[in-house]
Every structure is written in C-alpha cells, then in structure tokens.
Amino acid sequence: MMAIKRSNCFHKSGGKDPCHMSSNGYMITFGIIEIIFSQIPDFDQVWWLSIVAAIMSFTYSSVGLGLGVAKVAENGSFKGSLTGISIGTVTHAGVVTSTQKLWRSLQALGAIAFAYSFSLILIEIQDTIKSPPAEYKTMRKATVLSIAVTTAFYMLCGCFGYAAFGDLAPGNLLTGFGFYNPYWLLDIANIAIIVHLVGAYQVYCQPLFAFVEKWSAHKWPKSDFVTAEYDLPIPFYGVYQLNFFRLVWRTIFVVLTTVIAMLLPFFNDVVGILGAFGFWPLTVYFPVEMYISQKKIGRWTSRWVALQILSFACLLISLAAAVGSVAGVVLDLKTYKPFKTSY
Question: What is the Cα–Cα distance from 296 to 229, expressed in whole angstroms?
Fold first, then answer.
C-alpha cells in the first residue's frame, strides 16, 4: 500500500517530491491480515490463496517486464554494462567500492537461490494432488513447467530492468517507474504484489504451523488447550473448528515475524540470507542423497562423482551468498535506525 501511495504522490508532484513515508503502519496492517489468514487450519485449505498468489505474481511480473521494455525503447539504448554496476556509482548507501560490488554480486546469488528454494513446500503440495495419474508424475511435470516459466520471467525482468535503469536500477523494479504514466498500471502491479505476498506467506508458513502443532499434540496428547477443537459458527462461512493452541501460537509467530520485519527492514539482504542458508541443504543436498539412495548409485562411480561435484559446487555458492548477504546487512546497519524505516 505504501508503494501505491508513493506512486500516486510521485505522479501528483511530477517527481519533484521525494515522497518519503514510514513503512511501519503498513507492516502492522500486513501482520494483522496474516494473523487472520493464519487461522486457516490446514495447508490443503489454502489452495485457492495459492492460485490467487500465482496469478498476482504473473500480473506484476508482466507489468514490470512491459514497462522495462517500454523504458528501453524510450531511452533508445541499453543502459548498464555486462560487468554490472560501475565502481564509483553513488547510491543511497554511499559510493560503490570494489568490495561492495563483490558483496552485491554474492548477495544476488542468495536472492536467486531463495527464488528456487521451493523444496520446503514441494512435498506438502504433492500431498494435495489427486490421483490418478500418480502424484509424482503430475508433480514432475508441474515442477519442470514452473521452473521454465519462472526462469524466463526472472531473466527477462532482470535483464530489461537493468537495461532500462543501468547502475541506478532499484531493488524493486517497479519503484523505478515511480512518477511515469500510466501510474494506475503501477498501482495494479503493486496491489498484485501485496496479494502475492499475503498468499506466499501462508504457503511457506503453513507447513511449519502443521509441524509444530503435530509435535505439540504428540507431546501433550491429553491437553485440551493443545488438542481440543470447538465449533464456532461464522456468518457466511459455516462452522470453524477453533483450537486455542493454534490461535495463540500462530498469532505469536506472526507478531514476532512482523516485529522482526519492522526491526530489520532489509528485504534484499534478508532474502539473500534465507536463500543462502536454505538452498543447499534442502534443495540440493537432501534431494541428491535421496536420489543416490533410491537409485542405489555406487560410491565413486561416474554418476556418484558428478552428483557430489554438483552438491559441493552449490554448497560453495550458498556459502558465498551467505557472506555477501551478511555483509549487505552490515553495510545497511550503518545508516539504520530501529523502527524508523522510511522510503
């Protein structure tokens, strides 16, 4: 919502007003919305939210790509260079040095890794698929198609975004078009981002919710607070199965994540860290080891060696991304004030 308000402010002032705004109120509003949606009991009940989020993702990606192509056409040339941002470029964090450029490059690897760390929810999604055909066959086709489509969008948006703005390309591509017409198109894209984030939060958190609640029910099977469910009639919905442990624990979790987001509002840096720490063990190491075990691949065979080289290479990438992302957070902390974030 803040992005929409800023876009409209840019439009009204013709780009003369920097339109600085605090993000805290919007983060709190987002947290309240997530508290409500987090009360959806099971992962299979958020399928509709996942579909809406996917549609919204295509919407804002298409808008960003279209505006990027239009901006390149307007410029009449490609900005930037094949080696990335130029040393000496002045940014909000200061003048870019060779060391900072290295950290930025490594941080980008973490962001890319995060974009492909969907293995966290892969099994949960497969459990919701009906058969026949076999779930794994449907999931294989869906995975190949989704990776192909998302990779195409990532490459196009990244390349045209950089070609449009060069060294001044913002972390959020849409903010680069802040006071350009049609500003209403930017509003649509920003609304799509909001809806997508609401859905993405639930898709990623629901498996964690289920794990904690299943473990708690096993730990305290006789506790009514943990296991008992009560019928709660809700107008226009029906009967909701209220569980007090689910209500309290999920609310606390969302509140904590909201506070952390307000305390550390370094989106690109945090995404890089999450991608770095989650990519190799969950997306590479465990799947590779399971494949080796399932196919009974012998040690030191050519296939075994190739898979180990792949795993080790991805480990090095994850370590490099983690270093770059942590360095990015350290740089941002130099100009950071807790709970006083403005854009």
Answer: 45
Q: Give the whole-angstrom CA distance, residue 159 versus residue 115.
A: 16
Distance CA 165, CA 186 (A): 17
Q: What is the pLDDT along the chain (343 residues), one digit of tens a residue?
A: 566 666 666 666 665 655 666 677 788 888 999 999 888 887 777 777 778 888 888 888 888 888 888 888 888 888 878 777 778 777 666 677 888 788 778 877 777 877 777 776 777 677 677 777 777 788 888 888 888 888 888 888 888 888 888 877 777 777 666 555 667 777 888 888 888 888 888 888 888 888 899 999 998 988 888 888 888 888 877 788 888 999 999 999 999 988 888 877 666 677 777 777 778 888 888 888 988 998 888 888 999 999 999 999 988 888 888 888 887 777 777 766 666 655 5
DSSP 3-state assignment of 44? helix
Q: State the Cα–Cα distance between residues 313 and 90, nearest whole angstrom.
A: 34
First to last CA, the chain: 13
| Residue 163 to residue 249: CA distance in whole angstroms | 46
CA distance 302 to 32: 53
36/343 Cα distance (integer angstroms): 27
Cα dihedral sign, 291-293-294-296: positive
| Beta bridge pairs of residue 87 | none
- pTM, full prediction: 0.75
Tell me the C-alpha distance between 275 and 107, whole Å.
9
Q: How many whole angstroms separate alpha carbon 80 and alpha carbon 340?
A: 32
Which of 343, 341, 276, 342 lies closest to 314, judged by CA?
Answer: 276
CA 203 – CA 226 distance, rounded (Å): 23
Buried b (16+ CB within 10 A) or exposed e, 195-228: bbbbbbbbbebbbebeeebeebeeeeeeeeebbe
Peptide bond connecting 133 to the previous residue in cis, omega within 30 degrees of 0: yes
Query: In which residue are the tokens 């996917």 written?
Result: 54
